[in-house]
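The authors assume throughout that readers already know how a fold can be written as discrete tokens. The format is easy to grasp once an entry is in front of the reader. For illustration, here is how one protein appears when written out as sequence plus structure tokens:
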Amino acid sequence: MDGYVFEEVCKMEMKLLEEGHALPISVNLSCVSVYDDNVADVYDDMAMKYGNIIKYLPIKITENAAVSDVKIHKLAQKMTKYGFVLYMDTFWGWFFYSCGIRNTSFHNTQAR
């Protein structure tokens, strides 16, 4: 489902850019996608398919998707290598910060 939503957002973003409107649209990444070792590659390929629009597609990883520090760290490194801006969308931001996620490539945490 995440891949479908991401591609629809890519289409919408491309249309906005063609009309002269640059409006970043964030996309949530579920825990199912976090477990997918190919998710960063798939998202990069989709974004490039619509014309290198990565900078307009911030990714939010929800707190329930934060399966482990190691998994999140690897995913964050790979996605930021591709140019995605990452956010931890969490009510419990202080908890993740204290658990070491602060050492990942997240741009910021966002409280609900």
